[in-house]
Amino acid sequence: MKKSTYWKIAPFGIIAIAILFLIFINPADPPNAALFIGRFHSMVVHFPIGLLLLAILLEVLARKPRFEHLSSTIKLLLLAGAAGAVAAVLAGLFLEMAPGYEADTLSLHKRLGIGIALLSFIAYGVRLLDGSPGSILYRVYAGVLVVLCSFLLIGGHLGSTLTRGPGYLTRYMPQVFRSALGLGLPAQDWAARMAATADAEIYSDLVQPILDSRCISCHNADQPRGGLALDTPEGIEVGGEDGPVVVAGVASESEIMRRILLPPDHADHMPPEGKAPLTAPEATLIRWWIDEGASFDQKVSEAAPSPLVEQIFAGLDLPEHRTGIFALEVAPADSTAIQAARATRLAVISLGENEPFLQVRCTSASDCLNAEQTAALRLIAPQVAWLHLGRTEVADSALAVLAALPHLTRLRLESTSVSDEALAHLSELQYLEYLNLYDTSVSDSGLQHLSALPSLRSLYLWETDVTPEGVEGLQQALPDAEINLGLTLPSVDEDTTSVQ
Questions:
Q1: Three-state SS for 240?
Q2: Is residue 488's pLDDT more than 90?
Q3: Per-residue pLDDT tens digits for 261-311
Q4: Which DSSP helix (H) or strand (E) runs through 388?
Q5: Mean pLDDT over all residues of the chain?
Q6: How far apart are CA 191 and CA 59, in angstroms?
Q7: Which one of 1, 129, 265, 407 is at 20 to 30 Å from 35 when CA atoms are compared?
């Protein structure tokens, strides 16, 4: 048999094997191979859509005499599109075995996909028999193309609904079109909600908009991935297949916070890879809501905002609340500079929409703030507000770059080898509010470099070499700062408990 013959029959052989595989496997307990094949559906499905829409466009053009030569190309596109549609349908049937898809939407999407494959072959066959405009077959062919185009558009929309959640197409639709379709006003983001009322509710005005934009495309009542629906208070309270995701009053024990705070490349990180992660302020607000009891009707005025939450409120577009660096006019960082920093394995995240300030974190503990990263950091220096170097092997010499970060407000150096001398680089950081030096060798000598920091409010010195006298001296210099030394047990002399 000739090689060309092998290539002609190979696709049909693959399709036949896939069909047999589908027939004999148990959909309720599919093997990993089936789920693996299904993952290719999202990639394969775009080829027939593009080919078939191009064929329809060329068919419209071919009605003009000067484009008649496109007829042979149209036939090829229809055949290739039909074959691609079959491959997409087969991959989709495997993907259907994975849990988490809304049944009614999935069923209609599947039927449209099968219809697209059949109509594509019908269109190809009719075009092959008689492609002359005006004939009865050509009119049938034109009708098939109209139906095919409709199926492609509707099927594509349903596909986006399955993967991105209800309202994906209309979420950012201009209001003039929303009004024409009777969709009403779009959901406001949390900053706009806060700006609209001084009596905002923590959940409905702050937390729910974050969940709406980041989570409910996969975790909604119609498509509860992992059995978890985050679009209603009832769904949040029930949790998912693995149990509750919110422990009221204890954010540190809540599964939702654990997933949010995992490294972005972790398999359990949420949102998953390919979707925009929560910004630092968004994660902070959810943590605050949980720590405050995860109430669904508590108002902001009834809660006690932490310093971090107050800082976020200061970053809202409310002039009377903007303080510190958020009251400054700072231009956003150049996008190429941000990408350059990320290319050096620095994690760079915005502190909020419409805010120029950034959070930066080393992703490699053993190679933190190397020469390449330091150079990249200097390019975004005016915008760096939060810097996380904790639990890394950052060298003292690399910390010289801190002096070049004029708007740094939060710095984490816990469990590093930072020395007293390195803290001299912090002495000019007039906006520094939070500093974590837990589990370092910092002593009273290093505290002298911190005594002139006018904005310092939170300082962690647990498990360091500082003395009570050194801390007392720093407290006198910074009376508004909260200096955390961890749990201190009374000495034997101080213990007044007697044993009878």
A1: strand
A2: no
A3: 877 777 787 887 666 678 778 888 898 899 889 998 888 777 777 766 766
A4: strand 384-388
A5: 81
A6: 49
A7: 265
Cβ atoms of 417 and 387 closer than 8 Å: no
The answer to whether residues 234 and 228 touch, using CB atoms and an 8 Å cutoff, is no
Look up residue 241 and give its two tokens: 């297949």
Close Cβ partners of 478 (under 8 Å, ≥ 6 residues apart): 450, 451, 453, 456, 459
Q: At what angle do helices 46-61 and 71-95 cross, to 10 degrees?
A: 160
Give the integer Cα–Cα distance in Å for 225 and 41: 18
Long-range contacts of 157-163 (CB under 8 A, 24+ apart): 158/105, 158/108, 158/109, 158/112, 159/45, 159/109, 161/105, 162/101, 162/102, 162/105, 162/106, 162/109, 162/223, 163/42, 163/217
Task: Please give the Cα distance from 382 to 385 (Å, whole number).
Answer: 8
SS3 state at 399: helix
For residue 286, which amino acid is it? Answer: I
Say which residues have a Cβ less than 8 Å from residue 401's Cβ, sequence separation at least 6: 369, 374, 377, 378, 381, 425
The pLDDT assigned to 160 comes to 80
Q: What end-to-end distance do the CA atoms of the chain give, in Å?
A: 101
Q: Where are the domains of the chain?
A: 9-164, 190-321, 335-484
Q: What residues have CB less than 8 Å from 135, skipping those under 6 apart? A: none
Spatial CB neighbours of 281, under 8 Å, sequence gap ≥ 6: 312, 315, 351, 352
Instruction: Give tens-digit pLDDT for 358-405.
Output: 999 998 889 999 999 999 999 999 999 999 999 999 999 999 999 999
Q: Tokens 């599919």 label which residue?
A: 30
- Describe the crossing of helices 136-164 and 46-61 by its angle, rounded to 10 degrees: 150
CA 490 from chain centre, in angstroms, equals 46
Amino acid at 455: S
Residue of 319 and 439 predicted with greater confidence = 439
Tokens read off for 185: 């006003």
Q: How far apart are CA 78 and CA 294, in angstroms?
A: 55
Q: Candidates 3.80.10.10, 3.40.50.2000, 3.90.1150.10, 3.40.50.2300; correct CATH number of 335-484?
A: 3.80.10.10
What does the CA dihedral 21, 25, 31, 34 come to, rounded to 10 degrees?
Answer: 40
Q: Are 393 and 416 in contact (CB under 8 A)?
A: yes
**pLDDT at position 104, please?**
73
| H or E element at residue 121 | helix 103-129
Look at the pTM and tell me if it is higher than 0.70.
Answer: no
Phi, psi at 39, each rounded to 5°: -65, -20
**Burial bucket for residue 413 (CB in 10 Å: 0-12, 13-18, 19+):** buried
